[in-house]
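[Meeting: bench + compute handoff]

Bench side (C.D.) handed over the final construct sequence. Compute side (W.E.) agreed to return the predicted structure before the next meeting so the bench team could plan truncations. Sequence as handed over:
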Amino acid sequence: MTDIKGFCDPRFVAVRDALAALLDKDDVGASAAVYLDGEPVADVWGGYADANRSRSWERDTLTGVNSTTKNMVALCALMLADRGELDLSAPVAAYWPEFAAAGKENVLVRHVLSHTAGLPDLPGPTEVEDLYAWETVTAGLAAQAPVWEPGTAAGYHALTFGYLVGEIVRRVTGRPLGAFFAEEVAGPLGADFHIGLSADHDHRVAPLIPPPGLTEEYAAAAPAGPDGTRREETGLTIRVEDANSVAWRRAQIPAVNGFGNARSVALVQSVLANRGSAGGVRLLSPEGCEPAWQEVFRGDDRVLGTPMSWTVGFGRFGNTFGWGGWGGSLVVSDPAARMTVAYAMNRMIDREDGQEDNRGMEIVMAAYDGLS
């Protein structure tokens, strides 16, 4: 059995065992974490940070978590709403006047956060490099007409989510979303999570490893949802090679280019599961957390092609909420249990090719064993 480092409260030893089993099977390197009442009860890691298995996955190893980053973006918006600086029921154009163009004057902030704004596709970018031009992308979104009447349908905004919410945050605070997150969330919590990664952290990165039998040319139009169903078709191809590039690390693509590990993901999201605070640090009021699990839309998602329940910023699954990333990372929060569970890895699994990827859910179910 793979040697697992870190710690587990005795009640949560099943999490350590589940991670060891994954590393003995499909994973190369990975981490898992559980926070209960805003405090860590499991923080474990093991395996290797590279495909050659020459560099150990350490406590401070970081990896790209792709769309799991959306959970962080949503938290930033909820914090501003809780402070009274952002009205979730206000038109986006109240903060971003140019956005009212092309019939979007009635698109609300909550529409953007719940994937019901009718803007699932990027307006123009055809190369990954185009994603790095923030002002060009957001200006294109401001000029674009919605695909459906906002609020009447949902369609996963795989890449546009980060630009839309990020520009709202920038208009309200004067700061890029990555900077707001670093200063208002990661800094106070001491969370080692980054939206846009600076060069001084490069040596800690565990690059993503393509699914077995595939190369770094393995690509997707956009990261898949946690159920592995079809991805948004934007005409833009994102390869593993792109997600591992230095340019990708430095950019602001808030929907998909966060870097962290299970500990940092679980710590940040435990704020919402624990009614606004974690580790003695309060980021928002108990009431300010509630939109994270209150359903805004239920029905067939036009992009994912599957029934979905969307809240203000998160997917809702029964009594839990959260979201996962292309390749396998995942975070799930249970507000009734005040528990958050996260999993981050470097080996990707291609679910669209018929391969099952239950790794994150195996960690989640192991965590629930600790509550019984």
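W.E. noted at the follow-up: The chain has one domain: 4-369. C.D. will use this when planning the next construct.
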